[in-house]
Amino acid sequence: MSQPPSPQQAARMTIASIARMYAKGERIAMLTAYDYPTARTLDDAGIPMLLVGDTLGQVILGYDTTVRVTMAEMLHHTKAVVRGTRHALVVADMPFLSYGVTPEASLENAGLLMSEGGAVAIKLEGGERSARTIETIVRAGIPVMGHIGLTPQSVHQLGLRVQGKSRDAGRQVIADAVAVEQAGAFAVVLELVPEQLAAAITERLHIPTIGIGAGAGCSGQVQVVTDLLGMSAEFTPKHARHYAELYSIIKSAAEAYQADVTAGVFPGAEQSTRMDDAILEEILAQTPVERPQMVEASRGIPLDRDL
Ligand code: KIV
Q1: Whose Cα sits closest to atom 5 in ligand 1?
Q2: Which atom of ligand 1 is nearest to the CA of 224?
Q3: pTM beyond 0.85
Q4: Which residues are the active-site residues?
Q5: Are 258 and 244 in contact (CB under 8 A)?
Q6: How far does the centroid of ligand 1 lie from the alpha carbon of residue 67, in Å?
Q7: CA–CA separation, 146 vs 153, rounded Å?
Q8: Nearest Cα to 95, choosing from 121, 76, 69?
Q9: Residue ID of nearest Cα to ligand 1 atom 3
Q10: pLDDT tens digits for 106-132?
Q11: How far is 82 from 52, CA to CA, in rounded Å?
């Protein structure tokens, strides 16, 4: 009897397979990834879509906002994530001002994330204001994921708060969702939108909505992987749930390692290699270790007492 394919054997996800999941009503789990080992692990876990988000700037590179992230940084991390995946569809974020200035530059940068970075699709922020850009990129054959509601690249205009609560703001989020769909996006991220509004948008659209802080009524969910894994000691957004506590696991491991090194019990016999003592004795007899010269060689390094 044939077994269903394990996540390890499943074929590479495509835009068509995401559309099939959506058509069957299967909820889509997406996570961000920024490096090879994490992408490899999430891919092995069977996560169908990985986003190389520009949250990279904050959670990996230590910037204060996503606005500082460059095309070079996005390309560097997209390549690593693509190398780590065999099955997941990789979406790369377009960084601030890499799109929406001129159609030519938007297209060129989107193309680079695919041709050089290896991504299958790109994501960009903005609804009505980005519709023309989405259309241009989609027409060139590049799949686009939209991103509306809270758009972090507009942090200096919008702040970082829930979008769409008032009548006007709610109407704008709906108009943005429709504009993104009509422009040809294959999916749209709804970030920090009230859950009822997100559910209503999900019902009206014909493409998957991928929520983050937008309630359970979306077609799928995306989370920042470092939030999911509890990797920060400082801050967890309200919409995130820790599925692991890696900060304390990594910290305890580093403390234990330091204690072992200090006590001289790492490396132990298992982590070391031995040679034939007779060979060593022979070598040492033929090659006297010239300690005076070794002391001489270390003279260039200033010691505390010399400073
Ligand atoms: O950059 C990112 O990680 C994102 C998600 C928050 C959707 O855009």
Answers
A1: 53
A2: 3
A3: yes
A4: 191
A5: no
A6: 12
A7: 13
A8: 69
A9: 53
A10: 999 999 999 999 999 999 999 999 999
A11: 9
Average pLDDT, the chain: 92
DSSP assignments along 215-268, one per residue: -TTSSEEEE-HHHHTT--SS---TT---S--HHHHHHHHHHHHHHHHHHT-SS-
Both tokens of residue 215?
């309630």
- Specify the amino acid at residue 48: P
**Residues at CB less than 6 angstroms from ligand 1:** 32, 51, 53-55, 93, 147, 189, 191, 212, 222, 224
pLDDT tens figures, 155-182: 888 777 899 999 999 999 999 999 999 9
pLDDT in tens, 182-227: 999 999 999 999 999 999 999 999 999 999 999 999 999 999 999 9
SS3 97: coil
Best CA proximity match to 34, nearest among 82, 69, 72: 82
Domains, the chain, in order of start with CATH, read 15-228 (3.20.20.60)
Cβ–Cβ < 8 Å for 153, 74 = no
Collect contacts of 160-168 with beta carbons under 8 A, ≥24 apart. Answer: 160/192, 161/192, 162/192, 162/193, 162/194, 162/213, 163/191, 163/192, 163/193, 164/193, 164/194, 164/197, 165/194
Atom index in ligand 1 nearest the CA of residue 125 equals 8
Integer Cα distance of 272 and 274 in angstroms: 7
By alpha-carbon position, which residue is closest to atom 6 of ligand 1? Answer: 224
Helices (H), 51-159: 56-59, 71-83, 103-115, 131-139, 155-158
Distance CA 209, CA 188 (A): 5
% of the chain surpassing 70 pLDDT: 91
In the structure encoding, which two tokens stand for residue 66, read together? 């996503």
Whose CA is closest to 48, among 5, 4, 15, 92?
Answer: 15
